[in-house]
Amino acid sequence: MGRSRYQFTDPRLPHFMTVTVLHWIPVFTRPDTVNIVLDSLRHLSAEGLKVYAYVILENHLHLVAQSPQLDRDMARFKSYTARQLIVYLGENNVKTILDQFAFYKKAHKIDRGYQFWQEGVHPERIQSDAMMRQKVEYIHQNPVKRGYVDKPEHWRYSSARNYAGEDGLLDVCKLW
User: Fold this and answer.
1) 64 touches 51 (CB < 8 A)
2) How far apart are CA 141 and CA 92, in angstroms?
3) What is the rounded distance in angstroms from the CA atom of residue 50 to the CA atom of residue 48?
4) What confidence tens digit (pLDDT) does each residue in 38-78 have?
């Protein structure tokens, strides 16, 4: 996937991943843009992707997920969401952000006018229950450490609610 030095060591196993908007541009500040991401994850979940934990912040997201072909599923996720988000930004006349996606686009991406995501997802294979707990905690604490909320379950776009026994926006697998 991409030109990243990070690789999926075994795409069938759970991995912690970070997906970042190009140049850290804040796009996920509206429910509509976040819903594009959530809808894509729901679709992939219906096809076999297991999401264990996630958080969506204004310019990146973290998740722990697993599927029979996680590398392929993440490529599909990034491709679909990039197309949908660029269409959304165009339809809503968010020209400043689109101009930034054109300006910061990598030179080798000659087949498109915009680049939405940074290359790669920086996958880290989950090697133990302790590592899984640490990554889930890191994901859920991200908005707290940034000072956005006092408690992880207060962040709407996170699986922290699921782990707190509440309904979340996306079903997650809590059995490792």
Assistant:
1) yes
2) 32
3) 6
4) 999 999 999 999 999 999 999 999 999 999 999 999 999 99
